Structure formats: structure tokens, C-alpha cells
Amino acid sequence: MTFQYAPAPESTAIVNINSSNDLFINGEFTPGHGNPFKTINPATEEVLAEIAHANEEDVNAAVMAARKAYDKTWSKMSGRDRGKYLFRIARLIQERSRELAVLETLDNGKPIRESRDVDVPIAAAHFFYHAGWADKLEFAGYGDNPRPLGVVAQVIPWNFPLLMLAWKIAPALATGNTVVLKPAETTSLTALLFAEICQQADLPPGVVNIITGAGETGRMLVAHPDVNKVAFTGSTAVGQAIQRQIAGTHKRLTLELGGKAANIVFDDAPIDQAVEGIVNGIFFNQGHVCCAGSRLLLQESIAEQTIDSLKRRLVTLRLGDPLDKNTDIGAINSREQLDRIIDLTKSGEDEGAQRWSPDCVIPQKGFWFAPTVFTNVTQAHRIAREEIFGPVLSVLTFRTPDEAIEKANNTPYGLSAGIWTEKGSRILAMANKVRAGVVWANTFNRFDPTSPFGGYKESGFGREGGVQGLGAYLTSEETS
Amino acid sequence: MSSLDSQSPNMRSASSHKGLHALLAGLSGVDQVGAEARAAALGTRSIKKESKVWAIDTAISMVDLTTLEGADTVGKVTAMCSKALHPDPTNPSTPSVAAVCVYGDLVPAAREVVGDRIHVAAVATAFPSGRASLGVKLLDTREAVAAGADEIDMVIDRGAFLAGNFGKVFEEIVAIKEACGDAHLKVILETGELKTLDNVRKASWLAMKAGADFIKTSTGKVAPAATLPVTLVMLEAVRDYYTQTNVRIGVKAAGGIKTSKDAIKYLVVVNETVGDAWLTPDLFRFGASTLLNDLLQQRQKMLSGHYSGPDYVTID
Question: B48 CA to chain A: closest CA distance, Å?
Fold first, then answer.
């Protein structure tokens, strides 16, 4: 008899989803003036709720509320008092962690194991960390009287809805800015629950405003003349559009965009842990990770053995109901994203790469994609160049450290990289030469609020997290 | 005989074990942070309902019910052996444990009770420290086998291992294996003294190459005893050895595993590291004493729907 794991679904009873959801402006939930849209559970395609669509009038109202809160309260409040609100929010995220995790999994499709153990705890950690900075900004290295910028427009993606919200809102608030945030169209629900948490924390009205909607809402927000800074996380194409849109204005900008990270495994690597790192690098969150280790660079001498180990490991991955506590691979967030993954993997086959997936049962409903490994991939293949943003790994090989660096850097992106070797000097030498904002050594996809995150080249600019991340929300100039 | 046996490995080890040294030096390293993270991640698997019932019965059938105290008596061992055969007298569907594990002098007492219904394991080779000559260790082993032990739990010479004298450790295992005859040999690495996971992997390979039927984490006399990361690394070694040789070596996690919840975590690690072929008492064991009662209480709870209490399971 074999060891079958009985279904262990997390209960959804803890979450109360409103059938229709308003915008959060000036501390109140207010109806939007655009046509509401529906958000679905990508694992079942069932409609979860209707979401308000912010039009120009709503964007104006949100920015105006943020401006008023900035002028009247938030920029005048002492850092110590701002910190109190942030600590309060952090604790409320912890208190409501199960609710947030279940809701995130329902709306996004990611496994509950990840929303519970990664997204929500790190989101809380970002608020705790930045709460600590709020009254110490003059010691952060941005002059002895660093000032906030004003009203910040923030647009975030669907892959880590709550976590990206925390990465954006926590530093903005700690530094004294006020926020208008637009979550991704397919994943608005945890942002709206966060709005409830802001109310619960008695955050002054207008300090955080959350407007839901699609790309057009984001464009209007970014273009609003009374916005002082734009922070965007998402695709490189949209990031470029934003940069064009605000060129010539006074607005400051940080962009955190796509990636095509190289995960480089040397022949002296701890292989079992490297295999875990490869799996975590590309199959974590169904590969919907901008810093995913989507290009595996294996030293030729261990390539075959490592691919065998990797395949053996992938057979144990459990794909299915994201609410099941034993699920490793959840649902793809949207039909649109699934189509893109299918298109790119097809090009991989057409271009001659060898495709492999473990046997796994794909549920009838919802959007799913089996973990996929392409071997015999070359730098010339689309699957080695374009960001797939799905559970698809392209395996390339190299012979020498120099070749590994050349291949790792031969991409328009530069967000992250991984280096696997037991030799410390090689880690340092490689890390100096790899052009990536984050380099992990003998690990991958580890995040911590104390550590800055951001990209080189087409992966964007600006850093989030750490003392460096504060700089994106501060100026040493007197602001009006 | 004993003086020759105890000295010859020392004399030969430096020159004749180049291959062994090369093999151990060539093993891939273990990143401790990564191994611990993997073990912790597997520890979050949620095993419920029928899978939990199955896991608890499987765990019971894998227990080496153990008493290794200076105060052990025939009476104590006899009582433990009865329990090993019928762990839950109120429910005859409860499986027997895999074996009882005692000091060599109490093997006859154990065998008397259990007959050939379950295995009798004896610790030998100057357990737990292993600080004796090979001659003494061999005699210890032969006496236990002659008294009826069909499993021998030996300790490696950790001093020799840490001093880099792998040949000595190897030859001792070879010699003890020979002295075991038909008895199965479990080789205790005492990972709490080896400290690093790199050492755990090396010692695992050394023991398997020398003829171990099982590799075992600990004596239970040194803290920490069995841990999930250590067991994970040993299972990886067993898996890789199987890939190379097609021979399945068993693993015994001993000491410190006290709850059903912990035991189930180990079964998950076995399942997802070496696969379910190892989910049998022939290839995976728990060395434990208090674990059994927690398994029994959980079993009663699963079957009846309510918790009983410590008075509803038998002591020793």
C-alpha cells in the first residue's frame, strides 16, 4: 500500500467575501463610477465577487483625498506616530493572517501553503520593518532632514497581490507619503481587505486609498498631475509605457519589471539543495515570479545527473486545489496568462528544445499548467530570452565560470540570479560579475524586508526594502 | 585472535583505503540551511483522516521498542516484549511493533517472550560509546547473535571517523558484519557527535559500502538524537546508493521522536525522498520507547473519535 495524502483543504469559512466591492477613498468605501467587473477563482472559474471600476472622477477623488491627507495630517505627523499606525497595521495583518491567506489563494490561485507561509508573513514583516524606520529617517543616510515626496501612485501586479501592496505601502507611509494604490484587475480582494485593516487601525482618512480597475485606471492614476511619484511593479512593456507617459514631468519613478534569471549550478554545488533551489526558483507560485530562476545554467559535467535528480523531484510535486494544504503547484492566475505560457512553450518545441513534464492530473475546470522542463535549450531560443511567467524551466549548459557569466548576462533583463557552489570565493567572484539586482548564493527566492530588491537594465530601477528602499520615497529638498 | 583483529585495521587503513577516502571526498556537499529548509517544508504536510490512520499503523509496525538502561531487568524486558507483541490489548487489530531492542545480555529474556513473532535487536560493540577494542566488540556481537538476536545495532568509532581514519571505521563494520552471520546489521552513526550534515552523508556512505543493512541516526544517549534534517540526508544517501547499486539499505531514526505528529513527518520525508518502497519495517524503523504510547492514543482517537488518556494505554 502506498502513502496517499487525503485531501486537507483549508476552510474558507473564515473569509466573508462581499458580492460587490467599492473603492476605498478617503477612509470610506465608496462606489465607483465605471462599469463593475467580476473577479474569479482561477482554480474553479467561479465568480468570487464584483469589483468597482474606478473612472477618471474616482481617480481624481482618490488623489485629492491623498493630497488632503498629506497636507493636513500625514506629512505633519511625527515619525513616532506614523510608526504606531504601521505597527498597528502589521499586527492586524498577523491577527487576520488566515483570512488574508485564504482570500489570496481564492483570488490568485496560489497554494495556501505559500500564501500562509510566505506572502502574508512577509507582508506583515514589511510593515513591522518600516514601522521601525518611521522615527529614524534622519539616520538613514538621506540627509539630516529627509522629506516625503507627497502623493504616491502605486500600481501592483497580480502575482503577489498582498505582498506587493506591502512592499509599496509600508515604505511610502513610513516616510510620510500618502498613497493611491491600484491592485491588478484579477486580484483586488486582499487589497480591499487591507483597506478594512486600515479602517480597523484608525489610519487617518486619505492616507491610503485603493482604487480598483483595469489598465486604463492605472494610466489615469499615473498621469494625474497631482501625483509626485509613481511606483510600478509589473511587465516591462507597461513599465516602458509609464516611463514614456510621465517623461518631462516632475514625477519620480521606480520600476520593478520582468526578469529572466539565471540559476547557475557548478559541479561542486550541494546537489540535493541545488535541486530544491531550482524547484523553488521556477515552480514557486507557478513561476509567476518576476525574479524566477527561469534559466537553469548547469555545468556540463553534472548536467545529466542534475537533470535526472530534478525530474525525480518534480514527480513528487502535487498540483491541484490551491486550498489543499499539501498542494505545491496551484492554478495559473488567468486564462490570458495561461494562453501566453502555452504559446511560449509551443515555440520552445517548434524551435527544437526537448520538453518534459511529470505525469500529473490536470483538474477539469480552472487554469492549469503542469511543471515543464525544456532541455537542449540554447541562447537563441525564445524560451531562453522571453519572460514566460509560468512553471516552465529552460535548461542550458556551460563549461567554465566565464561562459556561465556571459550566458547569465546575455539577456535584456537583470533582476536576479542564483549561484550554487560550495566554494565561497567563487560565489563572491560570480556575484561581482553577474549583472542582476539580487544574487542568491546556495538559495533562491528568499525575501526579507531588510534586503533591497530591484533590477538592472530592462528589469527596472529603484530598490524596494532595506535602507536603500527608503530612498525611493524621500528627498532632501524642501517640498511644498 | 582479539589482539590481531583489533590492530590490523589500524595498520592497513592508511594505505589500503585510498578508494574509500576518494569516494567520501567526492560526495556532493550538503548545504545545511537548504537541507533544514527542505525538512521543515516537508514537515508542513498535512496528513489527515484515512492517510493518518494508515500512517499511524505503519509507524507502529516500524517501531523498535527499546529499553537501554543500566537498570533493565528480565522483568522489565519481559513486560516490554509483551507490549511489543500486543501494543494495545484492548484492540487486537493493532499491529505488532517491528522489534524489541535491548542490551545483549537481555536477548534471551526477550526471545523467550517474543519467539519468532518479531525481531530481537541487540545493541553491541561497546554501546553507546564504542570505546573498546575490536576484539571486545566482536565478542559482544557474537554473544548477542548466539543468544538469539537477529538484528545487531552497532556503533561506529566516532573518534576514528572524526580523526579522518575512515579505514578503521570501515574495517570494523566489515568485521562486525561478518560476526553477525545472518543477523541484520544496523550501523549507528551517532550523528549528534558527527555534528555536520557533510559528515552524516560521508558516514552514511561509509557504512553502506562496508555492508550495513540499515544506517541508524543515534544511540539515544547523545543529544541531539534523530532530527528530520539528519534523517533526510541519510535517506538521500540511501536513495543515491540504490541508484548506483540497486540495493536498498534501510534507515532507522532513533531517539527524540516522541509524538505521532513527529513520526508522521518522518514518514512524509521517507515517502518524498526515497519513495514508498521504503515505507515498510524492512527498510524504515523508529527507535523509540515513549513514541509507541502516543501512536496508540492517536490510533484510539482516530478509531473512536475521542481522546482517551494515558491511563488507557499500558506503561512499558
Answer: 6
Nearest to A138 by CA among A472, A479, A470, A480: A470
Q: What whole-number distance in Å separates Cα of residue A132 and Cα of residue A82?
A: 10
Provide the pairing of β-strand A460-461 with A438-441.
unpaired
| CA Rg value for chain A | 22
In this predicted structure, what is the pLDDT of residue B5? 46
Q: Please tell me the predicted confidence (pLDDT) of residue B315.
A: 84
Distances (CA, A) of A394 to A104, A346, A391, A407, A430: 29, 13, 10, 13, 21
pLDDT band at B10 (very low <50, low <70, confident <90, very high): very low
For domain A262-448, the CATH architecture is 3-Layer(aba) Sandwich (3.40)
Beta carbons of A272 and B29 less than 8 Å apart = no
Q: Which domains does chain B have, with CATH numbers?
A: 2-312 (3.20.20.70)
CB atoms within 10 A of CB A63: 24
Q: Distance between CA atoms of A356 and A285, rounded to whole angstroms? A: 19
pLDDT tens digits for range A383-427: 999 999 999 999 999 999 999 999 999 999 999 999 999 999 999
Q: Which residue of A has its CA nearest to B229?
A: A273
Amino acid making up residue B244: Q
Residue B310 has what pLDDT? 87
Superfamily of segment(s) A20-257+458-475? Aldehyde Dehydrogenase; Chain A, domain 1 (3.40.605.10)
A11 touches chain B (CB under 8 A): no
Domain ranges of chain A: 20-257+458-475, 262-448
Return phi, psi of residue A291, to 5°: -100, 20
Q: How far is CA A285 from CA A292, A369, A469, in A?
A: 9, 12, 24
Nearest CA distance, A124 vs chain B (angstrom): 21
| CB-based contact A326 B30, cutoff 8 Å | no
Is A50 annotated as catalytic? no
Question: Is residue B191 within a helix (H) or strand (E), and if so which, with residue range?
Answer: helix B191-194
The pLDDT of residue A170 is 98
Angle between helices A300-314 and A271-283 (to 10 degrees): 60
Kind of pairing, strands A460-461 and A252-256?
A: antiparallel
Chain B residue at shortest CA distance from A326: B45
Whether ipTM exceeds 0.90: yes
Q: Which of A5, A442, A447 to mutate to test the interface with B (most CBs of B within 10 A)?
A: A5
Based on the residue annotation, tell me whether B301 is a catalytic residue of this protein. Answer: no
* pLDDT at A451 exceeding the cut of 80: yes
pTM for the whole thing?
0.95
Q: How far A5 CA sits from the closest chain B CA (Å)?
A: 6
Count of A–B CB contacts within 8 Å? 72
B140, B150, B153, B294: which is the annotated catalytic residue? B153
Interchain contact, A442 vs B33, CB within 8 Å: yes
Q: Which of residues 311-340 of A touch B (CB under 8 A)?
A: 316, 325-326
Split at pLDDT 50, 70, 90, the class of A209 is very high
Catalytic residue, from B137, B177, B216, B265: name it.
B216
pLDDT higher than threshold 80 for residue A445: yes
Which pLDDT score is estimated for B15? 54
State which residue of chain A sits closest to B50, comparing Cα positions: A6
Residue of A nearest to B271 (CA): A3
